[in-house]
Amino acid sequence: MKADLLQIDLQSVAACRDVGSLNRVFAALCEDRGYTRLAYGDCLAYGGLDEARKFSKRMSTWWDYYAAEGFEPDDPTIPPMYYASLPYFWEDTRKTASPAGVRCLDEAQAAGMTNGLIVPLRSPTECFAVTMAGRPDRPSLSVVADLTYIAVQYHQRHKEFVGLPHEDFSLSLTPRMTEALTYAARGLTYEAIAEEMGIAIKTVEKHMSEAFRRLDVHKLPHAVAKATTYQLIHVDKLVPFWAG
């Protein structure tokens, strides 16, 4: 049932016909999962916060204060945007933050930016991210997985509306690797994947091992997150899962 609900949500994003409706649907889906403050934008954009954030909701007051206090150079949540392949919580960056960075995190909490979550949306030539905050408690990994799939679908649709070209990604998987990884993302065991694909289990293991090598990851959740972000796997073909 939960998987069906996510599929409906993804279809509602796919059905949007302009940026305005896309932003409204995206905000509503995030709010359904507890996040009331959102931002989406290009981490590589120049010209300040207004240009970097293509869409935002209930964050302008915090940004004004953030800019006035000069938090950006010490903000510990920013550096991982450029290399992380999985979502991460703001609070998880506290242990490596400078004293000024810790103050930034504390002030964000005080301003209602609670349980902040960042979903990186990177490719070899772009670095976008969705930032979420305002949730009263830390979400489960299943909710984070749902939000990741929705954010990637939103990003793909936004690019279509603003006319950004589809990229020739340097990462690539063979059709059989893609098929095996998609089945794995749906929760199938290697044995079940072998049966679906009509191949030996050892062949499935070989496909998955090579896919992990090409994606430069070591665990299935990392592989799915990265393959989804790089559009090697289509989000609307997946169901929610998360493994440790």
Tell me what the structure shows:
By secondary structure, the protein is of the alpha+beta class. Strand 4 and strand 5 form a beta hairpin. Helix content is 49%, strand content 11%. The C terminus is likely disordered. It has ten helices and five strands. Helix 2 runs antiparallel to helix 6, helix 7 crosses helix 9 and helix 8 crosses helix 9. The protein has two domains: 161 residues, Transcription factor LuxR-like, autoinducer-binding domain (Beta-Lactamase), CATH 3.30.450; 63 residues, Orthogonal Bundle (Arc Repressor Mutant, subunit A).
Return the domain count. 2
**Percentage of residues in DSSP E strands:** 5-15%
Main sheet: strand order: 2-1-5-4-3
Helix and strand sequence: HHEHEHEHEEHHHHH
**How many distinct helices?**
10
Please identify the structural class as seen in this structure.
alpha+beta
The biggest beta sheet reads: 5 strands, antiparallel
CATH class of the largest domain: Alpha Beta
The CATH topology of the largest domain corresponds to Beta-Lactamase
N-to-C CA distance? 22 Å
Low-confidence stretches: 235-244
In which range does the helix fraction lie? 40-55%
Quote the average pLDDT. 84
Shape: globular
The CATH homologous superfamily of the largest domain is named: Transcription factor LuxR-like, autoinducer-binding domain
- Strand tally is 5
What CATH architecture of the largest domain do you see? 2-Layer Sandwich
Q: What is the radius of gyration computed over CA atoms, rounded to a whole number of angstroms?
A: 19 Å
